[in-house]
């Protein structure tokens, strides 16, 4: 019987396991050193905030794995011997496979700052990170001040988590607006104001220089590149993530920033695949990045690789880009292409509408010549994925999108609606253009 070994029990690995089991009787072993069972990584923040217990973020009952003949093995893999088709664990144990799926996820990205390995410096990616945060910042009596380096989605989550325990937070972001490397400036500055309204000391155009030792291996303060010293007990690193692939250095599996895979998610080594955060597409679609550390991407890759392994050769096709997140109490959705100032191509025009309460806005991107709809960002207004995805596929005119926003609205019926104001503002822009 073919033995499929899946390295990693995140959304990518578990999705692959479930779909392989649905389509075959292959022996399946899932290996992870992080947790006994699969958990919802996007819900880690709610455990710290007290909204959920650990068992609440485990989607499957403990009996699920045995019932579905999914073998679980806990251990840290140090090397992969593709010649012998073996995994080598930290303790020296060797474990054989016929087909290997690497779903090893990602790690916090650090940039060789002096002091970055001190106690009290951490990211927020893994279960171990959550446990470390409980140790480093259990309350504002133990952690009197925290500094977060970087912004983005992890940074704002960490700020909200600490804020719920009344721990003062200073955030250092190198951009002029929060996450303006991704968001158009109108959105970035609105989110900056919103974060500050929650008593977060958000510093723009500021970067970390050094993390200062208290003399006993713990964080005492940080020094900014502008020369300011900020006393703190915790340094949260939110400068992005990187694929977890260091254990593959001598394996013969070809890597760049991530593990290089083709359209079938296969590596350069026969019977070895890579999916999720650790995978890098050799030829990514023009509208997608080669590495996308996003929950639904891992799920889609898991489904795709399962089909191929079960004899139904299937190419990975992520479709139109989309994502969603939350900036404190402002919900965010993005579909298609809406570029930041730094990355906006010449052919992309943008219409931006913001509500007077400064917590809701919409940015619609379209082609400057054809006026084809390219993408949309919404803050504080929920949209229907299937409607916008259809508009992107059909390459509709931007006028059609603005005139039919009500069809895409997913807010509950008792929420205020803003389509007439948005349409009026759009028409005014066209008249004054």
Q: Helices and strands in order, then pairings?
A:
Elements: E1 3-7, H1 11-23, E2 27-32, H2 44-48, H3 64-67, E3 70-74, E4 77-81, E5 86-89, E6 94-96, E7 99-102, E8 106-108, E9 121-122, H4 127-136, E10 146-149, H5 152-164, E11 169-172, H6 185-196, E12 201-203, E13 208-213, E14 219-224, E15 229-231, E16 234-237, E17 241-243, E18 259-261, E19 272-274, E20 279-281, H7 295-309, E21 322-327, E22 330-336, E23 348-354, E24 361-367, E25 373-379, H8 385-394, H9 398-403, H10 405-408, H11 419-432
Parallel strand pairs: 1-2, 1-7, 2-3, 7-19, 9-16, 10-11, 10-16, 11-12, 18-20
Antiparallel strand pairs: 4-5, 5-6, 8-17, 13-14, 14-15, 21-22, 22-25, 23-24, 24-25
